[in-house]
Amino acid sequence: MNIQSVVNIHIKDKWGWFYIPSLILSSSFLVNLLVSLLINNDEKFYSGGVTSILVYALVLGIIVVAQSFPFAIGMSITRKDYFFGTVLMGLATSFTIGALLGVFSYIEYISNGWGNRFHFFYFPYLNDGTNFLEKLPMFMILAAFLFFLGFFISSFARRYGGKGILILSLSTLVAGSIVVLLFHHYHVWSDIFQWLLSQTAAELSYWLLPLILINMAASFLLLKKASI
Predict the structure, then answer these.
(1) Which is deepest, 3, 13, 47, 101, by most CB within 10 Å?
(2) Of 88, 59, 66, 81, residue with least CA distance to 159
(3) Distance of CA 22 to the CA centre of its chain
(4) Distance CA 137, CA 101 (A)
(5) Distance CA 220, CA 214 (A)
């Protein structure tokens, strides 16, 4: 089955899929934990270091096509099988990242910040109003959104090249600026902020699901016509 062959291709890149994210997460945690121990005060110490693993999910999605697409097609794997094999690997990775963040945030909470009020995984807004079972899909969805956003970017680059990425970036910037101006002109920012504040982080994460599906569909269409 060629989808399994694609998964095997990705799994062989142990540094990209396993070692590097493990090193990023563990080293960032240990460095920030050491800093919290050196500070040694009575206040809670919050670190944003956990975002490093989420940023890497985006980076992984960006580099995956460049690293594996030409090789897979050269091995007579169809573009359809490559897409579904990569999606399967991306979902498995997102599940793993989400599970780790969910479990470690719970451990951090019950241990009072690893016994030192150190908060690397547990943040008030991300965890307020959510139980353990709600945190797991929240982190998984966030990781999946970033991975498949990167996957879309890399698929677009494979299809249209550097000039296409430049045009896409400028178009996104212009469209974003127009939306911001319209929101400001019609005074809707307060309504938007009130709605956001009325939602928990877990509830907001579900709004990313349609965007994940859109990125998947767009990546599939782009890879169908992408050059090797």
Answers:
(1) 101
(2) 66
(3) 15
(4) 11
(5) 10
Determine the Cα–Cα distance for residues 206 and 97; give it in Å rounded to an integer.
17
Looking up tokens 């910040």, which residue turns up? 113
Query: Can you read off the two tokens belonging to residue 142?
Result: 């966030």
φ/ψ of residue 200, rounded to 5: -80, 165
CA dist list (Å): 155 to 73, 158, 161: 14, 5, 9
How far apart CA 66 and CA 182 sit, in angstroms, is 37
Count of alpha carbons within 13 angstroms of residue 24, beta-carbon side:
19
CA proximity to 149, closest of 80, 64, 82: 64
- Distance from C-alpha of 155 to C-alpha of 194, rounded to nearest angstrom: 36
| Cα-based distances in Å from 136 to 79, 98, 102, 130 | 32, 6, 5, 10
**Which single residue is written with the structure tokens 């307020």?**
128
pLDDT digits over 63-113, tens only? 999 999 999 998 889 999 999 999 999 999 999 998 898 889 888 888 888
How many helices (H) and strands (E) are present in the chain, helices listed first?
Answer: 10, 2
Q: Is 92 exposed, middle or buried (0-12, 13-18, 19+ CB in 10 A)?
A: middle
